[in-house]
Amino acid sequence: MSWCSRGRTGALLGAALAAASPCRAQVRETQVWALAVASQPALYAAGVGFAWRDNQRSRIAPALAFGALGNGRFGVRADFAIHFLLDPYKRDGTAIYGGGGLTAAVAGSRVTPYALLVLGAEKNPGGTGGSFIEIGVGGGVRLAIGYRWRKSNAPGR
Questions:
Q1: Which of 41, 106, 109, 136 keeps 20 to 30 A from 126, CA to CA?
Q2: pTM for the whole structure
Q3: Where are the beta strands (DSSP E) in 7-140?
């Protein structure tokens, strides 16, 4: 049993989308990632994600991963996180971020929502791309690694 009902999950997701609109994004990101979740059963997956960063400290980051559960079955993980960037203006080096949101684990026909908390580090946060690593909890202890490509919006175009 999870901490929330389906109705509450939808309401939280709607509120998060309304609070941080991707329409005002200054940077768009696309990512590929690999994910391992220590849970019952464990999940090993890979997938894609998209993100929108504003010119402040926020990133809206939905992502999807498909893979194998520890019991040999097919599993899916859908994350929706809002990241808080500790140094949003840093161009080179490593930058730290934290975040939270919702995640849904899909095993067979069963969908289980969980709260999600992450702590991550990314390389070259102001550049055109960089690798990242995240640790966190949400339906188990999770480790994610990947690469993000970034494209800045051209204001006034």
A1: 136
A2: 0.80
A3: 27-38, 43-53, 58-69, 74-85, 94-107, 110-123, 129-137
